[in-house]
Hints:
There is one protein chain. The chain has helices spanning 2-24, 30-54, 61-75, 79-91, 102-121, 127-130, 133-143, 166-176, 184-204, 207-218, 221-225, 232-253, 256-272, 276-282, 284-291, 297-321. The chain is mainly α. α5 (102-121) runs parallel beside α10 (207-218) and α9 (184-204) runs antiparallel to α10 (207-218).
Amino acid sequence: MNILALLLLTLLQFILGIGVLALFNISLRNGLKIPLALLLGVAVSSFVPFLLQLLYVPLTAFSVFSALVMTALLLNLNMARTAELWGAMFRNIRFTVKLYELPFILLITAIVFISVWRCYYLPPTPRDLTSGPEVLAEYAVREHTMINSVFNVDLDSTNNPYKPAFITSLQIIYKYAGFPFGQLWLCVIFVSFMLLLYQLLCENLHRLLAGMLLLCFLAIPEMYAYTFMALFDYSNAVFFFLSVYCLTRYFGEQSRSYLYFAAWLMGIATYIRPETLVLAFFFIPLLVYRQWRSQTIGQLVQDAATFVTPAVLLYAVSVVCYN
């Protein structure tokens, strides 16, 4: 039953992600589109319980999953564009594995499996989680609100309950889906990012070298540990990377869809970790440097404002307003 719930929830997140790609008119090949849609679906679903809380809607299983389904329907209102994306996926599915890829794929799969199993089987242990998002989510499931009895405890020794609601919201969703430890949302982010990163490496490198580099990346002790410790760091790094990647695509293709998309992804990274707002402003000199020969001053200001606005708004809502 838990596996069915996980598959249905992942499918719903995929539909949410496809809706976001359609909304921004982002066209990518399937190797990038499928994992990116899953990552976007996790990000969008993390907003749903948070927004329900801002509206003082009780966080019951019915209200949370009804809101997720309604969000998926709203994001896919442009049926023509959504149908085009789905059709392109099913028309052009190709999956080939070279013999020399198998050793890397098997080893990477074993490493990924260990991380996924730890997320599923072991309870949350990091102090930043158990004194913040995890305890808030646990009591939110019992009391149907994030503003719950946790705040009756003396919290002078920690600021963890006052961090953005990204993890708290996802923990609530997965606990209501039947997973008492939550955390499996991190597996979706981890596996999707590995698939995406491998495809990006293969665009410019031989698959053998891409597999070696991905294995080296997985072997970084600190990064790998964050794939099964449900903290803010890994998710923040993933969406920050995606934002920078889409910004470079904008520089190369001059398609404003990529600028808007990069700005939204930077907003998500800021929603996950508020200090990312500082990094978002650090990109303004790069925007000016790369575009000053082809744009007027007004256009440069518009691009800079476009890039940082989602980050500023989400910082204001998640930190200033919510706290």
